Amino acid sequence: MDDHRAQRISLAVKEELGELIAFEMDDPRLAGVSVTNAEVSSDMRHAQVKVAVEGGEEKKALAALEHAKNFLRHELAARLNLRRIPELHFLADSHPDADSRIEFLLRRAKRNRARD
Fold it and tell me: Most CB atoms within 10 A, among 18, 49, 82, 97?
């Protein structure tokens, strides 16, 4: 699959899961959970979703997400027009700001390199 398409689908999965977890799930174990990153594999069969958990209740939040995995996948299928909905794998993100900081630094270095 095209790398650009995989990035677009990863972004869509991240946004939709963020909305689903924040606004449509009533599980108290998911209070303070936010999706920080989603990476879809090139064959669209798996997606690694990193979540940040406030308050240090990572194990409970990950257990709740594992329990709701099928519901979330079903809702993704209804919201995204994809042929194959990836299997969701949830991971705790220990440094939620690190990915965005690295991406910012890489973009800035690329922009500075283009000027030279």
Answer: 49
Return the structure tokens found at 62: 């990950």
pLDDT digits (tens, 9 = 90+) for 5-25: 888 999 999 999 999 999 999
3-115 fold: GMP Synthetase; Chain A, domain 3 (3.30.300)
What is the bridge-based pairing of β-strands 46-53 and 33-40? antiparallel
Task: State how far the Cα of 73 lies from the Cα of 102, in Å rounded to an integer.
Answer: 29
- Measure the CA–CA gap between 65 and 26, rounded to whole angstroms: 12
